[in-house]
Request: fold
Amino acid sequence: MEKIKDLNLDRIREKAEVPSIGNDLLVFKDVKAIPQLDEPRRMNCLIVAVCTKGRGGYVLNQKEYAITPGDAMILTDGQIVEKIWMSDNAEGMALLISNAFIFEILKDIRNLSILFLLTRNHPVFPIQEDEIRIAQEYLDMIHERVTRKDYILRKDVLRLLIVTMIYDLGSVFYRVMNATDNHSYDTKSEKIFVEFIQLVEKHCRRERRVSWYAQQLKLTPKYLSEIISSVSKCSPNAWIDKYVTNEIRIMLRQTDMKICDIAKELHFPNQSFLGKYFRENVGISPIKYRKGMEGK
Reply:
């Protein structure tokens, strides 16, 4: 069977001329402009959209979802999406964010694992009229700053805007979760996933062994791998790598630390090991990433 191809922002940019920040962020003022899929794709980015008029739908992980006016939609990394469609009279906006940028945005968000579970369990959910207005205001501000290419530090401003939007609309997430769930987790597996992510968030600078996390949770490494992969469609190693590479990204872009000192801070044997690890996970050397040469 042929491997399912990834859905990346660079692939979408090829088919849609919309305001963007490189391959990190795309803004669609018209949801109908989101390119249709010619085959199933594995999400390698984040899609957030709000529908204010018309209808639409898509198939996610082989399950069909309908989109109606007043619905929000969030598609996250690792999911298989196909058959996205919107009616001719559909209106709304959408943000498409790369995995690298979304991890940079969410690094300071509390209860990130809960947010992840919510988007997995409720990829489409209704939002109220005042919440739509607030979301629209943020999306308009984001669109304005993306289109102004001379805007000083626009990527940093956009990162903070999106974080603020998430906090401002946090009541939406909790209302949806409380309306459909009796507690924060649907299953024992999801509880283990949340505890695992919380451990990774706290200890990833020092610990990158799945066996260490399994020991803290009093599980075998094999069982932990099965649970995490089942809940998130992503292995424990992949989650650890996401958090570690994000720490490296932040240090490279937001500090003037020498790469050898970053390696020491994150408990790599030396700079060479860190460089190899970063290239394997990001596809570019730390030096080139620090110079902003990704995608070149």
